[in-house]
């Protein structure tokens, strides 16, 4: 399908107008199931292992972290901010994860 004729049009083509391959027309299966208990210790990614290793070199310091400060102007709804941050933390388990050593190797504990 040549695209040039649509470039000058006021709105071009909308997504429903664009032809889709047959496999894209099939309904998608929604993910379901029960939440998985992940407190038994999972293997860590290379990036997590690297941060764990750096923490082992100087325990209790924040040398391996990148601090960031923001200046907010105007009013701040502290309750709304706390609720929003809580929602993000609830949604992303990596933000609730701590790392421990098992046989000298890091494991992730959610």
Keywords:
31% helix; 110 residues; 9% strand; alpha+beta
SSE blueprint:
Layout: H1 4-7, H2 22-25, H3 46-57, H4 78-91, E1 98-102, E2 105-109
Antiparallel strand pairs: 1-2
- Biggest sheet, in brief? 2 strands, antiparallel
Please compute the radius of gyration using only Cα atoms: 24 Å
Approximate shape: flat
Low-confidence stretches: none
Strand % is: 5-15%
Approximately how much helix is present in the residues? 25-40%
- Taking strands numbered 1, 2, ... along the chain, how are they ordered across the largest sheet? 1-2
Secondary-structure-based class equals alpha+beta
* DSSP, total strands: 2
Count every helix, treating DSSP H or I runs of 4 or more residues as helices. Answer: 4
Report, as a whole number of angstroms, the end-to-end distance.
50 Å
Quote the average pLDDT.
Answer: 76
The succession of helices and strands, N to C, reads: HHHHEE
Describe the structure.
The protein has helices at 4-7, 22-25, 46-57, 78-91; strands spanning 98-102, 105-109. With 110 residues, it is α+β, with helices and mostly antiparallel strands. The protein has a domain at 35-65 and 76-110. It has a two-stranded antiparallel ribbon. It starts with a helix and ends with a strand. The model has no long low-confidence stretch (mean pLDDT 76).
